[in-house]
């Protein structure tokens, strides 16, 4: 069962975190155009992606997530649950293109909303503009998670 939490299932959250990487993976020839478009369509139409689509489209993250899940003895979440996917990305995701950078995903605070752009504070002083591809409704002061300068979820 893949129940929804915060409006997303675990598999939807997984693809949402991977969404900023899809065009890059396509440009690098790691996925074909059909797979790239299908994963974006799944998110845009609020569908629950099947695991095989995730495996083909986001192979590196898929493999890393399974490795994390199998090695996380004592973690209470089920495979593909919102909680286990969130825990993986928020605390254990280490981007394969930059393995020394554990901060590919950031916890930030919304400081300003400017149309389709949201400005967030990362750390004490750094303010950066980010995209909001799902058009999440946020307000100043909201804690959020961002990946590759895209708003992924409200914390």
Describe the structure.
- The structure is a single chain.
- With 155 residues, this protein is an alpha+beta fold.
- The chain has two domains: 10-92, no CATH class; 105-154, SH3 type barrels.
- The chain has six helices and five strands.
- A five-stranded antiparallel beta sheet has the order 3-2-1-4-5, covered by helices on one side.
- Strand 1 (105-114) and strand 2 (117-122) form a beta hairpin.
- The mean pLDDT is 85.
Structure summarized in a few sentences:
This protein is α+β, with helices and mostly antiparallel strands.
Report the count of strand segments.
Answer: 5
Structural class: alpha+beta
Q: What percent of the residues sit in helical stretches (DSSP H or I)? A: 25-40%
User: How many separate structural domains?
Assistant: 2
Shape: globular
Strand order of the largest sheet: 3-2-1-4-5
Which SSEs are present, and which pair or pack?
Layout: H1 10-18, H2 22-27, H3 33-44, H4 51-57, H5 59-71, H6 82-92, E1 105-114, E2 117-122, E3 126-131, E4 143-147, E5 150-154
Antiparallel strand pairs: 1-2, 1-4, 2-3, 4-5
Helix pairs in contact: 1-6, 3-4, 4-5
List the keywords.
single chain; 155 residues; alpha+beta; 2 domains; 6 helices; 21% strand
């Amino acid at each position: 069962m893949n129940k929804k939490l915060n409006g997303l299932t675990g598999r939807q959250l997984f693809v949402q975190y991977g969404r900023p990487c899809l065009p890059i993976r396509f440009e690098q020839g790691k996925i074909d155009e059909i797979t790239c478009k299908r994963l974006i369509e799944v998110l845009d139409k609020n569908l629950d992606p099947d695991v095989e689509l995730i495996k083909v489209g986001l192979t590196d993250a898929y493999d890393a997530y399974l490795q994390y899940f199998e090695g996380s003895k004592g973690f209470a979440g089920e495979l593909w649950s919102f909680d286990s996917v969130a825990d993986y990305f928020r605390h254990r995701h280490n981007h394969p293109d930059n393995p020394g950078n554990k901060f590919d995903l950031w916890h930030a605070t919304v400081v300003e909303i400017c149309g389709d752009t949201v400005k967030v504070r990362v750390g004490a002083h750094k303010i950066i503009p980010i995209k909001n591809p799902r058009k999440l409704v946020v307000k100043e002061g909201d804690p959020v998670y961002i990946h590759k300068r895209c708003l992924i979820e409200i914390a």
